[in-house]
């Protein structure tokens, strides 16, 4: 989205205000018979600042509605330092991270930008994982967390799962038979007829307003491929 696209006709035109007068005296003399007086130059920097603030408000609202609201993911602002200040002053996004990337992103490759973003997000991500694992341990103590796949599937069918932990890059072939509340695993000669059970399980959890967290194998509290953390 460019500033011209966002502001349209509201974009300041040449940073010039005009007024017209046909009065008597010095103002008429200054007109020298032209019938109008051009006056009231605003400082160019002030008008550019106003345009930038309006533009950033529109961008902030659009990002929130289309990305932040449906995903609840943190937002990292990558821009020149002077734009960081203006954008943060206008932003109402509660997920905007306090620290940003203070560089012109045009000079960065996608790989470099991703690396800089990960440096900012990694500590928060690691803290989130630890809090989630602590929550899972507490839930397990009171019977609100399961790791046997047959039990996890039942939790998903019943809409109990608040968060589903899934092992990264793990695939388990199988099919959820909802009417019978069980899993059907394939025989060796029928594997091509089955999808990844963990993908189907994750889709069911999301459909019932649960969330998914993908963890590395050594981060999983159990080694069955999936662990439920239940609401009740």
In words, what does this structure look like?
With 232 residues, the protein is of the alpha+beta class. It has seven helices and six strands. It has a four-stranded mixed β-sheet. It has a two-stranded antiparallel ribbon with strand order 3-4. Strand 3 (175-177) and strand 4 (182-184) form a beta hairpin. The relative contact order is 0.10. The model is unreliable at 14-41 (pLDDT under 50).
Write the layout of secondary structure elements.
Blueprint: H1 3-7, H2 26-31, H3 44-71, H4 81-90, H5 110-141, E1 145-146, H6 149-157, E2 161-167, E3 175-177, E4 182-184, H7 197-207, E5 211-215, E6 226-230
Parallel strand pairs: 2-5
Antiparallel strand pairs: 1-6, 2-6, 3-4
TL;DR of this structure?
Helices cover 44% and strands 11% of the residues. It has 232 residues and is α+β, with helices and mostly antiparallel strands.
What strand line-up does the widest sheet have? Answer: 1-6-2-5
CATH superfamily of the largest domain: Ribosomal protein L30/S12
Structural class: alpha+beta
CATH architecture of the largest domain: 2-Layer Sandwich
Q: What is the terminal separation in angstroms?
A: 44 Å
Number of helices: 7
Shape: elongated
Classify the helix fraction into a percent range: 40-55%
Which fold does the CATH topology of the largest domain refer to?
60s Ribosomal Protein L30, Chain: A
CATH C-level name of the largest domain: Alpha Beta
> What is the count of distinct domains?
2
β-strand amount: 5-15%
Runs in which pLDDT lies below 50 for 5 or more consecutive residues are 14-41
Sheet of most strands: 4 strands, mixed
Series of secondary-structure elements, N-terminal to C-terminal:
HHHHHEHEEEHEE
**What's the Cα radius of gyration?**
29 Å
Number of strands: 6
- How confident is the prediction overall: mean pLDDT? 86
């Amino acid at each position: 989205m460019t500033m011209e696209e966002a502001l349209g006709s509201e974009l300041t035109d040449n940073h010039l205000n005009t007024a017209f007068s046909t009065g008597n005296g010095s103002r008429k003399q200054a007109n020298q018979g032209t019938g109008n007086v051009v006056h009231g130059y605003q400082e160019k920097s002030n008008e550019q600042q106003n345009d930038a603030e309006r533009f950033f408000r529109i961008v902030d609202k659009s990002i929130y509605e289309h990305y932040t609201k449906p995903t609840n993911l943190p937002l990292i602002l990558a821009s020149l330092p002077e734009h960081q200040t203006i954008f943060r002053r206008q932003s109402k996004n509660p997920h905007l991270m306090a620290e940003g990337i203070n560089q012109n992103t045009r000079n960065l490759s996608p790989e470099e930008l991703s690396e800089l973003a990960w440096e900012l997000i990694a500590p928060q991500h690691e803290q989130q994982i630890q809090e989630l694992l602590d929550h899972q341990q507490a839930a397990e103590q009171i019977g609100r967390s399961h790791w046997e796949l047959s039990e996890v599937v039942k939790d998903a069918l019943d809409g109990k799962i608040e968060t589903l932990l899934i092992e990264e890059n793990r695939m388990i072939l199988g099919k959820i038979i909802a009417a019978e509340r069980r899993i059907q695993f394939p025989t060796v000669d029928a594997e091509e007829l089955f999808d990844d059970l963990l993908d189907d399980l994750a889709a069911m959890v999301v459909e019932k307003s649960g969330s998914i967290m993908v963890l590395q194998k050594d981060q999983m509290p159990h080694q069955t491929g999936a662990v439920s953390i239940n609401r009740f």
